[in-house]
Write a structure and sequence with these properties.
alpha+beta, Aminopeptidase, 7-stranded mixed sheet
């Protein structure tokens, strides 16, 4: 499986895709350690949409198979300050193990490096998420901090240029 990927910002009409992803306990095991119920997902999605309105080039994007339009997951490149952004990705299980997360990360990194003000990226992962850690370190990220993030274990990795 090697679909051509397209990215588009989440819009109000995309809640069902978002809920399908965050409502899946398998998907969320290394993120929140639980599926997100619909009411909580709606609140989170509304925050996502508000964040997407802040910057025209950055935010949270739907990742789609360009040929079929099938929803693959989420790609996050969200500014946390003028010179720094958070990188993240979430895939539906059907797309795991096919190198898609690596391709998403590389695309987001390239986009960030072209951005006129960004000088660094960070990502927060569950320390037990070895595949994500490998994707990030293979792209030059280095571990900066291990800690507790909202009651869950986390590792912050960073990439500077």
């Amino acid at each position: 499986m090697n679909p051509k990927l397209t990215f588009e910002k989440f819009g109000p009409q995309h809640f069902d895709d978002y809920l399908r992803m965050v409502g899946d306990a398998q998907v969320m095991a290394m993120i929140t350690e639980r599926a997100i119920p619909a009411d909580e997902a709606r609140r989170d999605f509304d925050k996502l949409l508000a964040g997407n309105a802040i910057h025209p080039d950055l935010g949270q994007f739907r990742v789609l198979d360009a040929a079929t339009g099938d929803f693959i997951g989420l790609a996050k490149l969200e500014a946390t300050r003028a010179d720094r952004a958070e990188l993240g990705y979430i895939l539906l299980p059907r797309y795991w193990g096919h190198g898609i997360a690596s391709r998403i990360a590389a695309t987001l990194i390239a986009k960030a490096r072209q951005h006129p003000t960004l000088r660094s990226l960070f990502a927060i992962i569950d320390p037990a998420n070895i595949p994500s850690r490998k994707i990030l370190t293979n792209n030059g990220f280095v571990s900066k901090e291990l800690g507790d993030f909202d009651g869950l274990p986390g590792e912050v990795l960073e990439l500077r240029w």
